[in-house]
Amino acid sequence: MGLSYTTLAVTVAEADAYATARAWSAWTGDEAVKTAALRRGQDYIASTYNARWNVEFDDADAPDEVKYAIIEAAYREIVTPGSLAPDYVAAKAVTRDRKKVGQIEKEVEYAQATSAASVRPQIAIIDRLLAPYLNQAFGASVDLLRV
User: What positions does the domain Putative DnaT-like occupy (predicted)?
Assistant: First the structure.
């Protein structure tokens, strides 16, 4: 099933306890501000990982690690609102490649398209928290039996 885009899996009280245990001084604001950050954090987790869960759960019975990942994402939203979903303008990044061998020098300039994924943050602690609950992102794995 996965995380909802309408019902929060984490309460402000749970987030406050998690933040206090980590001495996050930036976890501030009234309940409405924290709830909005939790909503944006859960939206980030849901949009990034809902298609990859290897277990079934809904908001009411989300594993603790999923809740912690939502809080980690929400913390980043408290510190820098909108950071999990930055605006994106399609463009091409110009790259130059210069090589010199002896007296011969060659410089190549090319444009490489950027994508929305290139501006979306990848947060290591969230990846580590969720790893046990995720299928592999690419490809598939098959158990091999030796006879």
Answer: 10-54, 55-145
Tell me the pLDDT of the chain averaged across its residues: 87
Interatomic CA distance for residues 45 and 28, integer angstroms? 21
In a domain, 91, yes or no: no
Tens of pLDDT, residues 51-72: 999 999 999 999 999 999 999 9
- Residue 134's SS3 state is strand
For residue 42, tell me if it sits in a domain.
yes
Residue 109 lies in a domain: no
**How many independent structural domains does the chain possess?**
1
Residue 60: which H helix or E strand, with range? none
Q: Please check whether residue 117 lies inside any domain of the structure.
A: no
pLDDT(94) > 90: no
Range of the domain at 43: 12-86+122-133
Give residue 104's pLDDT. Answer: 87
| Contact by Cβ (8 Å): 58, 106 | no
